[in-house]
Amino acid sequence: MSEAKFQAKIIHYLEKTGWYAIKLIKTNKNGIPDLVALKGDRSLFIEVKSKKGVTSPLQDYRIKELNDKGLEAIILREGEEINI
User: Of 1, 3, 26, 44, which is the most buried if we count CB atoms within 10 A?
Assistant: First the structure.
């Protein structure tokens, strides 16, 4: 499955389970995760990767930066259970 199809599957799952999902296309910060999901007082940044996909050092930095600021940022890989 392509990363785009997996991303669409995640968005569908999020919306089906009550999340407000936004695909981030171009932001002022390179390396920011692909999706942001909002539900109640919870926000979640999601970097989507195919089975063979690898995060870049900048993506790893952004995920750590978000988590260090008290936000939740994760990597979801194709083949892993979507359990958010």
Answer: 44
